[in-house]
Amino acid sequence: MIEVSAPGKLYIAGEYAVVETGHPAVIVAVDQFVTVTVETARKVGSIQSAQYSDMPVRWTRRNGELVLDIRENPFHYILSAIRLTERYAQEKNILLSFYDLKVTSELDSSNGRKYGLGSSGAVAVATVRALDQFYALNLTQLEIFKIAALANLAVQDNGSCGDIAASCYGGWIAFSTFDHQWLKKQQSIHTISELLAIDWPGLSIEPLQTPEDLRLLIGWTGSPASTSDLVDQVHRSREEKRTAYQKFLEESTICVNEMIKGFKENNVALIQQMIRKNRQLLRELSTITGVLIETPALNKLCNLAEKYEGAAKSSGAGGGDCGIVIVDQKSGILPLMSAWEYAEITPLPLHVYHQQRKGPL
Ligand code: PMV
Ligand code: MG
């Protein structure tokens, strides 16, 4: 039996701007996993996933018609990852066969509520990795990223794929997304193998070393948020508020690049300063678009962290889910943990996950 895992992620900085080509984000992989097992079957295969089986399929109405929103349901990411990996295997003249594929996830809380650690990215990466082993494809880390990214874009086309990069590479990364329009065009003229072989303009995934004194704390608000809905909402006012949106993109890029410099120079204070700056920029984005990113619970989480010398902000799309705090290792964290618990913020006892690198980048 084949068993592989892929970690969840948390955005540290650069959210929303990173959806646009060439604007960086810092993302980290955390030690909660999606695990996929594959076992050879005969004549008929199966796909099973306990966590996702009782998940409702959301729908909305467009011009009076009922339209399914499959973007929040990890099952579709599994299917899409299978399809693309098998298409690649076929291109390599590998004989396709039957298997039973099982998915288990630690990225959802026990009562089915999501922590916002990124099931869709991790599930796609774990599925591609499992089939990579099953069909002995020998894919590199970057090729796994590209197949998982293509699989996710087929289900949800408004994300940056930063979650996939974090899940593939592990640790802390600086990430900028590829030109999505360019990729769409290439998809209609190239095979998967060809798409894996060419450089994707704009794509950059750079592992970051962390200063020894840096400590990451994570607080959970307990309320789930829909990333794809929030990104849709921000994009709706993108045209109308063009100048302000452009300014946000530019300032976010300067801020995240400064933060990356902080990582390279072992400068925790600079990283903290840029966390605070990025929080401010996201607040401005909220004002520009009318989309609530830092909810009252996230606001409480951040303000308490700041009271105890932490630099804090919402993580990812916001609207709920988690907030992150960067503290200096030397400052005690227990007072903040108590303050959070009193304020009904759940500290998540997660660690950064570093994986052993298989093959070349
Ligand atoms: O809420 P999360 O952790 O899924 O993060 C979303 C981050 C965005 O930049 C808003 C979207 C994206 O795909 O990068
Ligand atoms: Mg989120």
TrEMBL record:
Q: What is the name attached to this protein's record?
A: phosphomevalonate kinase
Q: Where is the GHMP kinase N-terminal domain?
A: 77-171
- Does the entry feature the keyword ATP-binding, yes or no? yes
Q: Name one Pfam family in it.
A: GHMP_kinases_N
Q: Superkingdom, according to UniProt?
A: Bacteria
Tell me if Ribonucleoprotein is a UniProt keyword of this record: no
Tell me, which GO biological process terms does this entry list? isopentenyl diphosphate biosynthetic process, mevalonate pathway
Its pathway? Isoprenoid biosynthesis; isopentenyl diphosphate biosynthesis via mevalonate pathway; isopentenyl diphosphate from (R)-mevalonate: step 2/3
Query: InterPro entries, from UniProt?
Result: GHMP_kinase_C_dom, GHMP_kinase_C_sf, GHMP_kinase_N_dom, Phosphomevalonate_kinase, Pmev_kinase_bact, Ribosomal_Su5_D2-typ_SF, Ribsml_uS5_D2-typ_fold_subgr
Enzyme Commission (EC) number: 2.7.4.2
The record's annotation in NCBIfam families points to: Pmev_kin_Gr_pos (TIGR01220)
Residue ranges of domain GHMP kinase C-terminal in the record: 259-330
Print the keywords alphabetically: ATP-binding, Kinase, Nucleotide-binding, Transferase
| Gene3D superfamilies to which the protein is assigned, alphabetical | 3.30.230.10, GHMP kinase, C-terminal domain
Among the GO molecular function terms of this UniProt record, one is: phosphomevalonate kinase activity
**EC class name:** transferase
